[in-house]
Specification:
The complex is a heterodimer of chains A (128) and B (155).
Chain A: E1 8-12, H1 16-29, E2 33-37, H2 40-45, E3 53-56, H3 70-80, E4 85-90, H4 95-103, E5 108-111, H5 116-126
Chain B: H1 8-48, H2 52-57, H3 62-88, H4 92-101, H5 103-108, H6 112-126, H7 131-152
Helix pairs in contact in B: 3-4, 3-7, 4-6, 6-7
Classes of the chains: A alpha/beta (128), B mainly alpha (155).
Chain lengths: 128, 155
């Protein structure tokens, strides 16, 4: 497998265990610079750091009940900078939600399953 | 004609044999029960928690595995409490949110059956199904998580 170059990655997910595990996985072979956020609002406040990739969950209200969902954050990201790559990583298996995120500009929609981390790492390596 | 007296020695031997047989039988019964209990516990453990995913993810690193197990154990009490509270409040939206939000953890812990239950509960809630069927699935999910916690605490 061709190893890509290191990228600046934001992970936005309200599941702290998952963000820790995903960060662990992504930095294992390539020294990506990974920052994690539990809400989209926190992530947007740090956008001056100019991430290359944002990995975004759909539902983000486990910790903060009023937190915006992934679609709203995705729209805000694309409005700020359309060149930022966004990968949606969600447990939602509903086709309608997946197609909605792609229509709003997400590059990929990955369902959280046993192979999700490998898929996300592979997609990040493929991005320019 | 004199009565034939039973041979006392033979009687003693008979009683002794019966005693030995009953002890052996009792021992075999106990061993059978212990074996059944062992296999039932083993089977239940294998059904509820499979460590293969975590082992593969952590590349066999036991310290790393323990870190994620500890994270799961730390989050489990509030998860169980929130599920029970949403069940008591008959709050379908909250039940769906809780069930959805913790599926990733269940996958990481190899709790596939629990993850399927969580998916089912989320779907039932979002479809506005009868609370009784949701409650049954939710109670099963809580039992699965509680059982997994008790197993993982001994690991």
């Amino acid at each position: 497998m061709e190893i890509g170059k290191a990228k600046k990655i934001f992970i936005v997910d309200d599941d702290l265990m998952l963000t820790e595990a995903l960060k662990d996985w992504l930095t294992r072979k390539i020294p990506h610079h990974v920052t994690t956020f539990s809400t989209g609002e926190d992530c947007l406040q740090h956008f001056s750091d100019k991430p290359d990739v944002v990995i975004l969950d759909y539902y983000l209200n486990a910790i903060s009940k009023d937190a915006a969902n992934g679609i709203e954050i995705l729209k805000a990201i694309k409005k700020y900078d359309p060149s930022i790559h966004v990968i949606i990583l969600s447990s939602q298996e509903h086709y309608g939600i997946a197609s909605q995120t792609i229509q709003q500009g997400a590059e990929h929609y990955v369902i959280k399953d046993e192979n999700a981390f490998e898929k996300v790492a592979s997609l990040i390596n493929e991005l320019g | 004609m004199p009565l034939k007296c039973p041979d006392i020695k033979e009687q003693r031997l008979l009683i002794y044999k019966q005693l030995i047989l009953s002890k052996v039988f009792g021992y075999l019964c106990r061993m059978h029960i212990y074996t059944l209990y062992f296999y039932e516990s083993f089977y239940i453990q294998k059904r509820i928690f499979r460590h293969q995913f975590l082992e593969r993810f952590c590349e066999g690193d036991k310290i790393r595995m323990q870190k994620y197990i500890d994270m799961f154990l730390a989050s489990a009490p509030s998860l169980i409490e929130n599920l029970k509270a949403s069940l008591n409040n008959n709050d379908c939206h909250e039940i769906a949110s809780q069930a959805h939000g913790h599926k990733a953890k269940l996958i990481m812990m190899g709790m596939n059956e629990a993850k399927e239950l969580a998916s089912e509960i989320e779907m039932l809630c979002r479809q506005g199904e009868n609370m009784d069927s949701i409650k049954i699935s939710l109670q099963k999910l809580v039992i699965q998580i509680e059982t997994a916690v008790s197993i993982l605490q001994t690991v």
